[in-house]
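INFO  loader      accepted 1 record
INFO  loader      residues=537
INFO  predictor   begin
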Amino acid sequence: MTKLPRLIFNTDGNWMLFYLPGRNPDDVTHQLDELVPAGVDALAGLIGIDDDVVWRGSPHSAMWGDDTQVWDPDPDNPVRKMTAGGFELSRLEQLYNCMDAVSADGRELMQLYIDGCRRHGIAAIASMRMNDAHTSDEAREWQVRSRHKKSRPDLLIGSPTPTRSGGADRWNFCWQWDYEQEEVRDRFLGLVDETLERYDFDGIELDWMRGPPYFRPGRLLDNLDTLTEFMRQAHAIVRRHSRQQGKPIALLTRVPPCLAEARGIGIDAPGWIRAPVADLFVLSSASYCPARIDIAEAVACAKESKVPIYVGFDGATHLTSPHEGYDRGVPAVLRGVALNGYEQGAAGVYIFNYDYRHHRASPFAEEEYNDDHLALLTDLTDPERLARRDRSYSVSDSALGGVVNHALGDHYAQVPRALSMPARATGGLGYEMTLIIEDDIEAGLADGRILGTELRLRLTDCEACMERIFCRVNDRAVSLAGAAKLKNQLGTWLVVKNPPIQRGANLVLLGLDGLQTPDPWPTLHQCEVMVLGCDST
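INFO  predictor   done
INFO  writer      dumping C-alpha cells
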C-alpha cells in the first residue's frame, strides 16, 4: 500500500450475494458508495469461505461449495434452519449460486473487489482466515466442509475437541487445521503466493483471530516458534511479489487484543511486532468489541521496528446500557475503544463484520446503513471528533444471561462477579475492577468539550441488602442512594452523575459492608462509565 489507511473495513465475502439476479459486477461492491464517503479507505475481503476459495483451479483448495451434495440435510427440522453465523441455512446455497454465476459469466470475484476499490480510490486487501471453524458445527454446516479436510483427517486437530474450539464445547471433533503439520503450513503459504500471483492486491491479511486453536492439546509448548517461522516465510513471499510487481504490497496480520494471552494460542505477538514479521498489526478480538486492547504495549514493542499498530474490533459490542436510542451495538462503546486506541498510539482503526445488520447499532428500521451507522465510521477516522462525542467505557465484558463472553486471546472478563465483602479478609486482595479511560476528563470538563460523566451499574439480587452496598471509585466514596435508573432488555441500571473518574486506569470497587452472609448474594453484571461529549449530533 502506498498510503497508510486510517479506517480498514473487513467484509467476509457475503457481498457476492448482490451479484444475482442482476449479474451486474458493480452491484457486488455497491456498499462502497456509502462507506468510502464515510471514511473507509481500505477494504479487506475474504478470498474464500471457511477453507475453500472463491475461484476454481487452485492447487491448494477447491471452490467453496463445489463438493456440496445436499444443501439442506434436515428439511423438516426448523431447529436446523440457521447457520453458525445466525443466518437462514438457505443463504449458504444462495452464496454458492452467486459465486457460481460469477464464474459462469467469465468473471473473477476477487477482481470485482479490486475493481470496486480502484473506482473509489481505496486500497484492496485480500483477507485469509487462518483456521475458520464454522464447519465444525455438526448440526448445521457440516455439508460445506472442504474436500481436503474430509480426505485428510490426519492434518486436523481432531478429537478430543479443545475447550471452546470455535465457540461451542459440544462439538465432538475439531475440524480445524493442525499447524504442527508442515503440509498444513505449506498449504497456507501456497495460498498466499497464489493469491498475489492471480490478483493485483495492495495487501494481504493473515487473520489469526479466526481462529484458535492451532495445535493439538498438549503440543503448544513444543510449537511456540512454529507460527513465528510461518510468518517470516509469508512475509518473504509478500516482499517477493512486491519486488516483482514494482509496487508496495503490505502484509497485515490480526492478533489477539491481550498480548500475554496471545502466547496461549501459539502467537508471540510482541516478538512478531519487534521483528517485524508483518507490515501492519491489528489487535482485535475474534468476534466482538472488547473493552480493553493492549495498544500501548504493542506500540512500545514497535519502538524500533516502527510497524504501525491498529486498534481493531467487531461492530458488535458486549450488551450495554441503552444510549442514543440503541440497546445493542451502541456506537458510544466503539467510540470509547477507538479513542483509547488512538491515545495509546494506534495508527488507525480496523472494523470487522460491520456490514452485517446485526453487528451494527440496533434496533433500527432500515435494512441498509442508517445515518448513525455511517456517522460512526466517520467518527472512527478522527480522534478529535471522537473526543467530542459520547463515549462508553467499561470493565471487561459479559454476555447475555451472565455467560462470560471470553474468546481465546482476549483479556478475561471482570464481570459478572458476586459483590466482595472486604471485612471478611485481611489486607488488600485486589477486589477492585480496572476501567481504562484514555482522555483528560478534568480538562475536557473545564473547557466544555465534555458535558458530564455517568457511572452505570447493573446489579441483581440486591434489593434485600441495598443499604449494605458501597461503591468506591479511585478510592473515593460514591453514593448509590438516590441514583437515577435506566431500563432495557437486560434489566435496571443505576446511574450516578459525575463520578470521580480520571485519565488512565480507574479502580472501581463495589462491595458489601459487614460480616453477615447475604441471601441471595447480590451480583454485579456490568459496570460502565459514560462520557458525554459536547457534540452529540
